[in-house]
Amino acid sequence: xxxxxxxxxxxxxxxxxxxxxxxxxxxxxxxxxxxxxxxxxxxxxxxxxxxxxxxxxxxxxxxxxxxxxxxxxxxxxxxxxxxxxxxxxxxxxxxxxxxxxxxxxxxxxxxxxxxxxxxxxxxxxxxxxxxxxxxxxxxxxxxxxxxxxxxxxxxxxxxxxxxxxxxxxxxxxxxxxxxxxxxxxxxxxxxxxxxxxxxxxxxxxxxxxxxxxxxxxxxxxxxxxxxxxxxxxxxxxxxxxxxxxxxxxxxxxxxxxxxxxxxxxxxxxxxxxxxxxxxxxxxxxxxxxxxxxxxxxxxxxxxxxxxxxxxxxxxxxxxxxx
Length: 322
Description:
Elements: E1 3-7, H1 12-23, E2 27-32, E3 45-48, H2 54-60, E4 67-70, H3 78-81, H4 87-107, E5 112-118, H5 148-167, E6 171-176, E7 179-180, H6 193-203, E8 209-213, E9 219-220, E10 223-224, H7 225-236, E11 244-246, E12 252-253, H8 254-265, E13 270-274, H9 288-294, H10 302-321
Parallel strand pairs: 1-2, 1-4, 2-3, 4-5, 5-6, 6-11, 7-10, 8-13
Antiparallel strand pairs: 9-12
Helix pairs in contact: 4-5, 6-8, 6-10, 8-10
């Protein structure tokens, strides 16, 4: 039986990944600061611990694993990443985790290691036009991410690639584009746009309004969790190192995302655009490279994933008020 280690297994993507790996027949060890919030972990073994601490890393990555998935990071949505108030923690915490992990991955001669980077690494100057952002993988340099989160991700990509060159670490790197779905953070300040939109609409009184940051004309693409995991597994099973985008190329404005969510709810609501942290004006996954290397790209319609996510968040709100 193959062994896999999932770091960040208590988080949204990590908990879903543990479940997928178990269903594929892996023995899975997970680690995080906490257990998954909305479901019981399916990991065979789960270590609660802080991966910034070397002694915890020695317990967690203490043997050979066929596959290691490094998803652990200090992160959140626009309200966490773009205010500037969390920059030091984001830079320090995530970089320290990655430095600890690559060292031990080499020590135990693990089979492969996956690193989850982000679309936030792309230069701000290529994402000023909301109608035609450039997020092709080769556009990352000259570098100018719009946040310290993006700078740390870019540094860590180079860290993993350096260990690949110098220590023969078998690395795979993907740049995630706004992954969403059920059992993810939907309140508290670290939620991302789809979950925040679902929560606002679900909590709104029919005939009322919801608030949307900015003018609402900023664009993004959003990828449903099942397709994200499919892309990750295809990358790990390939001979391609990356970095490669794993994201949807169905671009939508934030106001249109809000209206889509309102339509799903069946409510009559108006959109009130207010000032707030925004990030870049436009971002969309360029999927030419993943299609040419893995002969696959995500194809779920955004509406399908939003319907599932809205209904799940609506259920959470109902259960909270009971």
